[in-house]
Design brief:
single chain; 2 helices; 25% strand; 3-stranded antiparallel beta sheet; elongated
Length: 167
């Protein structure tokens, strides 16, 4: 099933509909296993013909089936905590008055902490990752990867060694 983007009632389609927001679907309980947030807490803002358009303050009525711009605000989701410690150490060894060797060791992500990427938070990813949305109500039936973290956002520990001869 292909899930159309929100905001079709305003002529939004393609890339611009991906920027539209979903509706809150209430409080459906805790977060399911394997998900970073509860994907069932969101719904596509679907309108039936004759239904008042919420984003117009109820002043307009939908002439046909469409999607509205949802009620979820900006920045309501936060990703996982990020932690990264870098460390450098160096030593100069004098050879002559104006000549020396410099040894340096750089450690990036010293403690080898895995930093997870942000979860998939694009409602359009539901259909793109094998999920489904009820076309009549906008409720998520199967979230697919929506709400899951599927990658890391940083490299593992990297060590860089350098030796310089300065004269």
């Amino acid at each position: 099933m292909e899930a159309p983007g929100a905001g079709s009632i305003y002529g939004l389609s393609g890339a611009s509909s991906a920027l539209a927001r979903p509706n809150w679907a209430g409080s459906p309980g805790g977060t399911p296993g394997g998900y970073f947030f509860n994907p069932y807490a969101f719904a596509r803002p679907v309108l039936s013909a004759g239904q008042p358009i919420a984003s117009s303050g109820g002043a307009a009525i939908a002439g046909g089936a469409a999607t509205d711009i949802g009620s979820v605000g900006r920045n309501v989701l936060r990703g996982p905590r990020q932690s990264n410690t870098d460390f450098s150490i160096g030593k100069k060894f004098m050879i002559r008055e104006h000549q020396f060797l410099e040894f340096r060791a750089d450690f990036f992500n010293l403690f080898n902490h895995v930093n997870l990427a942000n979860p998939i938070s694009d409602l359009n990813a539901v259909a793109a990752t094998g999920g489904s949305i009820n076309p009549a109500t906008g409720a998520i039936v199967n979230p697919g990867s929506f709400g899951q973290i599927i990658s890391a956002s940083s490299n593992p520990r990297l060590i860089q060694l350098a030796l310089k001869y300065r004269f």
